[in-house]
Automatic annotation (TrEMBL):
Cofactor: a divalent metal cation
Organism of derivation: Pseudodesulfovibrio piezophilus (strain DSM 21447 / JCM 15486 / C1TLV30) (Desulfovibrio piezophilus)
UniProt keyword Secreted, yes or no: no
Binding, a divalent metal cation: D246, H248, H282
Limits of the 2-C-methyl-D-erythritol 2,4-cyclodiphosphate synthase domain: 241-393
Binding site for 4-CDP-2-C-methyl-D-erythritol 2-phosphate: 246-248, 274-275, 296-298, 301-305, 340-346, 372-375, 379
Family, per entry: In the N-terminal section; belongs to the IspD/TarI cytidylyltransferase family. IspD subfamily. Belongs to the IspD/TarI cytidylyltransferase family. IspD subfamily.
Protein name: Bifunctional enzyme IspD/IspF
Signal peptide feature range: none
Gene3D superfamilies given in the database record: 2-C-methyl-D-erythritol 2,4-cyclodiphosphate synthase, Spore Coat Polysaccharide Biosynthesis Protein SpsA, Chain A
GO biological process terms on file: isopentenyl diphosphate biosynthetic process, methylerythritol 4-phosphate pathway; terpenoid biosynthetic process
Catalysis performed (reactions): 4-CDP-2-C-methyl-D-erythritol 2-phosphate = 2-C-methyl-D-erythritol 2,4-cyclic diphosphate + CMP; 2-C-methyl-D-erythritol 4-phosphate + CTP + H(+) = 4-CDP-2-C-methyl-D-erythritol + diphosphate
Enzyme Commission (EC) number: 2.7.7.60, 4.6.1.12
Positions MEP for the nucleophilic attack (site feature) positions: R166, K221
């Protein structure tokens, strides 16, 4: 009989000591190990938040960690609102004790509960949804399980006593889902009768039927030092594109001589600027900063700082290139456009392109420079100033 759950909560068990990882984890309990910038237990919370049927989560931590972890969770939920109600409680001596403490924190109207190990950070929202569906369709309890590929033998004193039927065996995972009342009943009976179990399904199966649904190969548990490698993401090289724009007004004969791309441009035109006013190199510097999220040149070389008065933009660009190198951004292409009604840039284009290649350390086919007018329209068309845009492509290992 179908009876959809109305208020499902999850219990994330993060109260273990992680003793099997030992020194390999640097003394950090596995539930606190960071993966993609967040501790393992938070990844499970994120997954549960992506399933509409899950309304809340109880985090179970070691007793001594409850207060500091509650403070940390407030910060996590403030920075990343998951849309879940949440509580924190202290774990017990055994895993089943920690679960029992978590169950005690569930709201009275909670009719379904998912119990999950924080050391399984790769569980998918799809698997959680399938477990909830299983109870919605009439089951009282369900667990994910994987078929066994090895032959399993029962051994006593080093001697095989039985070969188990592999087709009948499953390696079970978490999360496991239960009707809340049923899980409470199982834990009460476990206390009264002294049961000692390794998971909640083995407790509940003594009093009710537990359905097994297909598990996920990727839903692994971080247990041994060898498992830590699974938290190391493979590094890949990705293209990054930065875009830059700059504009300067023409000034009088007492202002800065016109310099474009590090090349002095003889003639009557001067630039109003704090530095040397090289509009092309300024746009290029901003584009390079964009490839690694480095801000803009105004932040690094403010026009309020006298030490940059009249500064050679080629030198400023070299500093930006050093920042890019430190950030691991390797430039592979630059495309630049100068927009100006005057002066004519055709006589200077080849020299500018050559100088850009030299400064950037790139081959000629990797640097494209061009100039255009705005057909006497707007700021530059009225010969009031000059502007430039630049697009830079870099490769970064992430």
């Amino acid at each position: 009989m179908n009876r959809p759950l109305k208020n499902t909560w999850s219990i994330i068990l993060a109260a273990g000591s992680g003793s099997r990882l030992g020194e390999a984890a640097g003394g950090v309990r596995k539930q606190y190990l960071e993966f993609k910038g967040a501790p393992l237990f938070w990844h499970s919370a994120r997954t549960f938040s992506r399933v509409a049927g899950v309304k809340g989560v109880v985090f179970v931590f070691p007793p001594e960690d409850v207060i500091p972890m509650e403070k940390q969770l407030r910060q996590f939920f403030k920075a990343e609102e998951l849309g879940l109600r949440w509580k924190v409680c202290a774990g017990g001596e055994r895993r089943q004790d920690s679960v029992r403490h978590g169950v005690a924190e569930l709201p009275r109207d909670c009719d379904g509960v998912l119990v999950h190990d924080s050391a399984r950070p790769f569980v998918s929202a799809r698997l959680v949804r399938e477990l909830i569906d299983c109870l919605d369709q009439g089951a009282q309890a369900a667990t994910p399980g994987l078929s066994i590929t090895d032959t399993i033998k029962r051994v006593a004193d080093g001697v095989v006593t039985e070969t188990l039927v592999r087709a009948e065996l499953r390696s079970v995972q978490t999360p496991q889902i239960f009707e809340t009342a049923l899980l409470m009943q199982a834990h009460e009976q476990a206390v009264q009768e002294g049961w000692d179990v390794t998971d909640d399904a083995s407790m509940v199966e003594r009093i009710a039927e537990v359905i097994v649904i297909p598990g996920e190969q990727g839903n692994i548990k971080i247990t041994t030092p060898q498992d830590l490698a699974k938290l190391e993401e493979p590094r890949v090289t990705v293209p990054c594109v930065g875009w830059g724009y700059d504009v300067h007004r023409f000034g009088g004969e007492h202002d800065r001589p016109l310099v474009i791309g590090g090349v002095p441009i003889a003639g009557p035109y001067h630039i109003l600027a704090h530095s040397d006013g090289d509009v092309l190199l300024h746009a290029l510097a901003d584009a390079i900063l964009g490839t690694f999220g480095g801000g803009d040149i105004g932040t690094h070389f403010p026009d309020t700082d006298e030490k940059f008065s009249g500064a050679d933009s080629s030198l400023l660009l070299k500093e930006v290139l050093a920042m890019a190198d430190e950030a691991g951004a390797r430039l592979v292409h630059a495309d630049l456009t100068l927009i100006a009604q005057v002066p004519r840039m055709a006589p200077h284009s080849a020299q500018i392109a050559k100088n850009l290649c030299r400064v950037l350390g790139l081959e000629r086919h990797q640097v494209n420079f061009k100039a255009t007018t705005e057909e006497k329209l707007g700021f530059t068309g009225q010969k009031k100033g000059i502007k430039a845009v630049a697009t830079v492509t870099a490769l970064r290992e992430v």
